[in-house]
């Protein structure tokens, strides 16, 4: 009898344990409800913009090699770079800076190349700028990659007249002296440039101004930004970076009616220390965790600026334009520190996807953004060395995220999300965006931040019929600091993905560790 009682107790204990384990695993299942019939806001393709500054090898060598170069080129632009950018559906490119914009005088960069003046790029390495890449070259580049130009104009050291005349040169279709000068220089039709910046970082390299002074100057310069020949303008005022909300608030109070957007810059510094930012290739899990944790500060900063903007613009007529973002590490050893050259790892790709998810989430206010920068500088899409070119892991994230261009962000409800923990800190392990295309497709991107463990996630669709998976791709690598090198350009690439099952309205996905996955369903 005692024996029977003992076995009975044992069975109860066993059943209880199994029940508890099951209950626990149910509680730990990442689970998200997707409301396919609840669009939240439009994700503008302009959130996926790029930034190309006259800085180091960003333009010269990286994009522009000149017609006489041995590097295969079309009209002086590298063929390999043109092709890679075309494949990315780049919506817009911001140019010529950055800090360079406020020392750039547009007349230096027009006319016969051998007559253009040589200036000093005092901001970036004190190198000689021969102005062989100017207005015509930039705008031809935009045509070749089918992207919209975003021209950051000089408020810091230029005059309102200079800014106004650049606009007339760009956009006037009549017979003015400036429009005819444009024709003499080879361009008959006006370009109709719409997006312009009116100063850059005017609190710092753009003139070290107080917000009161800049607000007055902004109003003055913006007064003379005319819509020549009916070409509509979209003017972006200089905002501050990070959590400097007071600047945004003052600008909105003083000049909201004279701008279409105000900028925000935020760079992820892995160590949090601008004097020793950390290596782009040699970092441990502590710095990996810190980097992706810091990238997510973007969410708080956008919300903070947007709240201040709401005070004066509750209808959200003025956009927040995040026209510089990305990871900024120490320069690669042996490179000119003024050239801001860094490698680009799988960690950086995850920083890109996490940031893009945040920008998408705030797409009711953020309608344009530009990663810094496009080629050879900071968190680049593309690295070049002589005639060689590689696509970085970040390039591949922008490729995966093309599915979100001009779609509708869908409302999602996170029922449960596990944490990725390190050193007593924890962050949600999966970051995601879910959008709907006009043709009814649902586009999902999922980032698993855990460097060592795969992660299962269950997605339930409500308010719409799902029948099949059209496409599934993933980007991962063997380590978080895996990179594409010139000797191994395909170390971190996108591959087809099949670790999922679709069962009615439930999609179950097993995300590889340290990965970005995209799935399109219909
Ligand atoms: O992207 C590099 C520099 O960072 C830009 O020129 C400037 O605007 C910012 O400080």
Question: Care to give the gist of this entry?
Answer:
With 522 residues, this protein is α/β, with parallel strands linked by helices.
Average pLDDT number: 95
Low-confidence spans: pLDDT under 50, at least 5 residues? 12-27
The radius of gyration is 25 Å
Structural class: alpha/beta
Helix content: 25-40%
Q: How is the largest sheet built, in terms of strand order?
A: 23-22-26-20-19-16-1-21-25-24
Instruction: Count the DSSP helices.
Output: 11
Bound heterogens, unique: alpha-L-arabinofuranose
| Euclidean distance between termini CA atoms | 62 Å
Overview of the molecule:
With 522 residues, the protein is α/β, with parallel strands linked by helices. Helices cover 27% and strands 28% of the residues. The protein is built from eleven helices and 26 strands. Strands 23-22-26-20-19-16-1-21-25-24 form a ten-stranded mixed beta sheet, with helices on one face. Helix 4 crosses helix 5, helix 7 runs parallel beside helix 9 and helix 8 runs parallel beside helix 10. The longest helix is centred in the first third of the chain and has 26 residues, at 2-27. Residues 12-27 have low confidence and may be disordered. Bound molecules: alpha-L-arabinofuranose. Alpha-L-arabinofuranose is lined by residues 53, 97-99, 200-201, 324, 372-373, 378. Residues 53, 97-99, 200-201, 324, 372-373, 378 line the site of alpha-L-arabinofuranose.
List descriptors.
binds alpha-L-arabinofuranose, 26 strands, alpha/beta, globular, 522 residues
């Amino acid at each position: 009898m005692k024996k029977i009682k003992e076995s009975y107790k044992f069975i109860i204990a066993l059943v209880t344990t199994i029940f508890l384990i099951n209950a626990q695993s149910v509680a730990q299942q990442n689970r998200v409800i997707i409301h396919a019939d609840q669009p939240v806001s439009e994700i503008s393709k302009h959130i996926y913009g790029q930034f190309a500054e006259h800085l180091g090898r960003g333009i010269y060598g990286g994009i522009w090699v000149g017609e006489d170069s041995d590097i295969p080129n079309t009209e002086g632009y590298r063929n390999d770079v043109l092709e890679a950018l075309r494949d990315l559906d780049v919506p817009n490119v911001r140019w010529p800076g950055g800090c360079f914009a406020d020392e750039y005088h547009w007349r230096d960069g027009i006319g016969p190349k051998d007559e253009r003046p040589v200036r000093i790029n005092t901001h970036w390495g004190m190198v000689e700028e021969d102005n062989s890449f100017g207005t015509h070259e930039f705008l031809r580049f935009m045509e070749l990659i089918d992207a919209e130009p975003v021209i950051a104009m000089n408020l810091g050291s230029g005059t309102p007249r200079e800014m106004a005349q650049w606009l007339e040169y760009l956009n006037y279709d009549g017979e003015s002296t400036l429009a005819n000068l444009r024709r003499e220089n080879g361009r008959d039709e006006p370009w109709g440039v719409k997006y312009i910046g009116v100063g850059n970082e005017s609190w710092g390299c753009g003139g070290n101004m107080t917000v009161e002074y800049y607000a007055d100057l902004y109003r003055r310069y913006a007064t003379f930004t005319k819509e020549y020949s009916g070409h509509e303008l979209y003017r972006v005022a200089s905002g501050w970076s990070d959590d400097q909300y007071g600047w945004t608030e003052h600008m909105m109070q003083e000049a909201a009616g004279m701008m279409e957007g105000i900028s925000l810059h935020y760079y992820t510094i892995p160590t949090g220390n601008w004097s020793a930012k950390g290596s782009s290739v040699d970092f441990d899990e502590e710095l990996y965790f810190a980097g992706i944790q810091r990238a997510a500060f973007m969410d708080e900063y956008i919300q903070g600026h947007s709240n201040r903007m709401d005070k004066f613009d509750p209808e959200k007529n003025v956009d927040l334009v995040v026209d510089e973002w990305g990871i900024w590490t120490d320069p690669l050893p042996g490179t000119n520190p003024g050239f801001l050259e860094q490698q680009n790892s799988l960690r950086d790709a995850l920083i890109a996807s996490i940031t893009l998810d945040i920008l998408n989430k705030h797409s009711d206010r953020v309608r344009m953004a530009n990663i810094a920068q496009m080629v050879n500088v900071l968190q680049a899409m593309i690295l070049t060395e002589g005639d060689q070119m590689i696509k970085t892991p970040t390039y591949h994230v922008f490729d995966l995220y093309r599915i979100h261009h001009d779609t509708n962000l869908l409302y999602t409800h996170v029922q449960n999300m596990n944490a990725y923990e390190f050193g007593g800190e924890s962050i949600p392990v999966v970051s995601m965006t879910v959008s709907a295309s006009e043709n009814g497709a649902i586009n999902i991107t999922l980032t698993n931040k855990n460097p060592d463990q795969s992660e299962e996630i269950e997605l339930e669709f409500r308010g719409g019929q799902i029948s099949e998976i059209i496409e599934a791709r993933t980007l991962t690598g063997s380590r978080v600091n895996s990179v594409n090198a010139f000797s191994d350009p395909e170390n971190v690439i996108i591959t087809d993905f099949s670790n999922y099952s679709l069962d009615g309205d439930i999609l179950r996905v097993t995300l590889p560790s340290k990965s970005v996955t995209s799935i399109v369903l219909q």
